[in-house]
């Protein structure tokens, strides 16, 4: 089979142990064969990414020569054992954290090179192209829920699409809470406000750090469905860090990290397949 001009051939291997389709970049996970895969026109791409903390014997290699692409309009979950580098990877890709200096390092979103750009340039780029969902919510305590939702667009001098805003607010059950300040909301409600805020501008890429971590099962499922629809219907690119196999099963692809390196990938994940892969990574 010959790939079309300009598009790298994707090699997809079927592993009978999982009975799922897997893509991998190393043989860290038992039973996964090794291959090299390149995606055409990725939404997010990085090359030769390093991040270290400390010095000497205390040095920690949070990211160790990571090279990976994330396809446009796809929902990717990033998983790995505690300390594997998954949150560091997401924050570095989102330009919220600075990688080690390296002349071969590249970080691109939508084809724009971001590595080495000035802070004010990165801030402006994130405001226009990126949405964030944090574990800590990052809501402004003096603003109402509605004002927090509208804040990023307001800073960019834009107004929200009222129909889209109303849909998001109603879907996440916030219609009666828009005039409440964060201190008057539960943790789950604050997280939902943060999610609406992240999706409101229909950003090219949404970075989500454990978006269901503070939600009950019903609210968590609604959030996952919304992220799934954002990728499928709105063609947004979703990158989600999670430790939850159920949450990962909503994704198109799971990327596994271990010791700051890409340990493997899984396409069309299921709850059981993700649990099995995580068990192997953790030596269970």
Automatic annotation (TrEMBL):
Pfam families: ABC_tran. CDD domains: ABC_MJ0796_LolCDE_FtsE (cd03255). Keywords: ATP-binding, Hydrolase, Nucleotide-binding, Transport. One of its GO terms (cellular component) is membrane protein complex. It comes from the Bacteria. It is an enzyme of class 3 (hydrolase). The keyword Nucleotide-binding applies. Residues 44-284 form the ABC transporter domain. Its EC number is 3.6.3.-. Belongs to the ABC transporter superfamily. This is Macrolide export ATP-binding/permease protein MacB.
């Amino acid at each position: 089979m010959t790939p079309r001009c300009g598009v790298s051939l994707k090699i997809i291997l079927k592993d009978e142990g999982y009975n799922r389709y897997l893509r991998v970049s190393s043989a860290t996970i038992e039973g996964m064969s090794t291959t090299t895969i390149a995606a055409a026109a990725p939404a997010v791409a990085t090359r030769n990414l390093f991040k270290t903390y400390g010095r000497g014997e205390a040095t920690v290699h949070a990211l160790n020569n990571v090279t990976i692409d994330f396809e446009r309009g796809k929902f990717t979950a990033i998983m790995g054992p505690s300390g594997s580098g998954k949150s560091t990877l997401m924050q570095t890709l989102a330009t919220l954290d600075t990688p080690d200096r390296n002349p071969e390092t590249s970080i691109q979103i939508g084809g724009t090179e971001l590595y080495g750009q000035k802070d004010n340039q990165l801030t402006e780029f994130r405001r226009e192209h990126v949405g964030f969902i944090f574990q800590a919510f990052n809501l402004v305590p003096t603003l109402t829920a509605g004002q927090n939702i509208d804040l990023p667009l307001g800073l960019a001098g834009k107004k929200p699409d009222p129909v889209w805003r109303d849909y998001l607010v109603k879907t996440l059950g916030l219609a009666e809470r828009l005039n409440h300040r964060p201190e008057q909301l539960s943790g789950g409600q604050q997280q939902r406000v943060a999610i609406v805020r992240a999706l409101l501008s229909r950003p090219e890429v949404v970075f989500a750090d454990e978006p269901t971590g503070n939600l009950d099962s019903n609210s968590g499922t609604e959030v996952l469905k919304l992220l799934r629809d954002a990728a499928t219907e709105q063609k947004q690119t979703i990158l989600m860090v999670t430790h939850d196999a159920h949450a990962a099963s909503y994704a198109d692809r799971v990327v596994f990290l271990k010791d700051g390196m890409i340990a493997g990938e899984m396409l069309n994940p299921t709850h059981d397949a993700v649990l099995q892969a995580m068990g192997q990574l953790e030596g269970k």
